[in-house]
């Protein structure tokens, strides 16, 4: 349906929508107010869009509407400013408000089932609610990491069941989130954004939208290409982390210092990118997303062997850390059962407060299962409630450190004084080289 202006220019719904992006009158809906959706919603509100967040969690809706921040990568004052002072951001659990939106950005989780297969329940649930309320002139953009084909093969048919046609009546795109939790240099605004769509009109509309708040937007030929870009990015990380984890296990076997080797390899000024071993791979992305591609590849009778092998090696690291801890205690005549073990850091990575999907959490649980008397200190995780445990972070004192038969560094938070830890710990296993630069006896302070 096209409308002509008095100059004869075609004013299509797409052009009208793009004009509303430019003058910031477009209403923006963000579905999923987690570590991707809330920063995105705040960024759009900061430049003047009226944003309505949608989340099924009443607690999140209430906290956003109270200007009460719960995401580490969002500045408390910025959330209060756009919610309470400017009134540009609000939240709701009412799907019936979706038709008010000109743009709907979907940032819901894409977990795995226990068999490591894609779990699209959240994408499908949101798409089903949206399909009932879709109206002409809306842009729908999926940001959740998923396998190539999800937007075109799953979302598009569900939305077109409304009778509206993609590219003519509504616009559909995929633009992967690239949030790096805890990264102080790259935010939603200055991280390059890839955008793909099934057709040219949808892509132009989506590009026009993202260009309002993101410095550099990168168009690709289709939503499948954009989906593949993202899942490749995370596969790239998973494979390279697995490579250095495997090297760590080999160096342990050969009695070599893997950190020295990796630091020296990192001095090559070209053709290498530094990754470091650790107690395992956590978070909601790297351990999961590559298996979305692995699953899709089977449809084409293709085995993504790197993905399978990387997952296997990375999932083995917690057991390797446990075995090394048992070895260290045994060398001192101690068994794990009854040993007092202090874990430093249960969050899945440095300077984040999320202990879900964390190797540190898994190792703490494995230690407890084998009878160790486990306690933990994590300045960013005051309570540990994973795997059925309910522990409080203990204060990091000289006495607590000296009382432990083994201190186990699993997350290298910047806030911890590692010279203090080295001074008072009787035996220390450092799986992150957090004690880098601290003079110490490497028989007492052992590296992964
Ligand atoms: N890890 C290592 N060794 C390394 C790097 C990471 O053991 O050399 C571990 C971390 O400790 C952590 C896990 O891997 O447990 C994942 O860390 P990560 O920083 O790669 O992943 P996320 O999930 O915190 O954030 C990533 C983004 N990170 C970076 O690019 C640095 C990026 O891959 C994605 O934009 C984002 O996930 C996402 O949402 O997909």
Notes on the structure:
By secondary structure, this protein is of the alpha/beta class. It has two domains: 3-227, Rossmann fold (3-Layer(aba) Sandwich); 236-447, 3-Layer(aba) Sandwich (Rossmann fold). Helix content is 38%, strand content 14%. The chain has helices spanning 13-22, 37-46, 58-65, 76-85, 121-131, 150-160, 200-210, 223-254, 258-265, 289-298, 305-331, 359-369, 398-403, 418-424; strands spanning 3-4, 10-11, 27-31, 50-54, 89-92, 103-106, 139-142, 171-174, 193-197, 217-219, 340-344, 373-377, 383-384, 391-392, 406-409, 428-430, 445-447. It has an eight-stranded mixed sheet with strand order 5-4-3-6-7-8-9-10, with helices on both faces. The chain has a five-stranded parallel sheet with strand order 12-11-15-16-17. Strand 13 (383-384) and strand 14 (391-392) form a beta hairpin. It is elongated. The N and C termini lie far apart (64 Å). The chain binds ligand SAJ.
């Amino acid at each position: 349906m096209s409308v002509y202006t008095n100059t004869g220019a075609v004013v299509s719904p797409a052009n009208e929508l793009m004009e509303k992006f430019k003058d910031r009158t477009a209403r923006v809906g963000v579905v999923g107010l987690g570590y991707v959706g809330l920063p995105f919603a705040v960024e759009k509100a900061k430049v003047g869009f009226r944003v309505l967040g949608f989340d099924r969690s009443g607690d999140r809706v209430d906290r956003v509407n109270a200007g009460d921040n719960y995401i580490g990568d969002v500045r408390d004052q910025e959330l209060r400013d756009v919610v309470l002072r400017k009134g540009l951001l609000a939240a709701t659990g009412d799907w019936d408000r979706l038709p008010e939106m000109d743009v709907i950005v979907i940032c819901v989780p894409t977990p795995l089932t226990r068999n490591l297969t894609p779990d699209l329940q959240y994408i499908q649930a949101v798409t089903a609610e949206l399909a009932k309320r879709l109206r002409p002139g809306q842009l729908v953009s999926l940001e959740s990491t998923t396998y190539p084909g999800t937007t075109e093969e799953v979302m598009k048919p569900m939305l077109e069941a409304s009778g509206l046609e993609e590219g003519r009546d509504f616009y559909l795109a995929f633009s992967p989130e690239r949030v790096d939790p805890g990264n102080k240099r790259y935010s939603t605004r200055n991280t390059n954004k890839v955008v793909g769509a099934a057709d040219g009109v949808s892509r132009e509309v989506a590009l026009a939208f993202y260009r309002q708040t993101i410095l550099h937007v990168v168009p690709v030929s289709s939503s499948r290409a954009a989906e593949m870009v993202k899942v490749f990015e995370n596969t790239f990380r998973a494979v390279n982390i697995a490579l250095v984890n495997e090297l760590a296990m080999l160096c342990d076997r050969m009695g070599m210092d893997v950190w020295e080797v990796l630091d020296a390899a990192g001095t090559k000024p070209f053709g290498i990118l530094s990754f470091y071993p650790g107690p395992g791979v956590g978070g909601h992305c790297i351990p999961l997303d590559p298996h979305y591609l692995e699953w899709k590849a089977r449809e084409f009778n293709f085995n993504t062997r790197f993905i399978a092998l990387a997952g296997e090696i990375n999932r083995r690291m917690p057991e390797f850390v446990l075995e090394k801890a048992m070895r260290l205690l045994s060398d001192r005549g101690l068994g794990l059962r009854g040993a007092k073990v202090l874990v430093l850091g249960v969050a899945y990575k440095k300077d984040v407060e999320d202990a879900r999907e964390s190797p540190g959490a898994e190792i703490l649980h494995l230690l407890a299962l084998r009878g160790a008397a486990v306690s933990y200190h994590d300045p960013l995780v005051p309570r540990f409630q994973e795997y059925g445990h309910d522990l409080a972070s203990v204060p990091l004192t000289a006495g607590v450190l000296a009382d432990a038969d083994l201190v186990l560094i699993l997350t290298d938070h910047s806030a911890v004084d590692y010279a203090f830890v080295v001074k008072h710990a009787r035996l220390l296993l450092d799986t992150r080289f957090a004690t880098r630069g601290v003079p110490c006896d490497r028989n007492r302070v052992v590296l992964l």
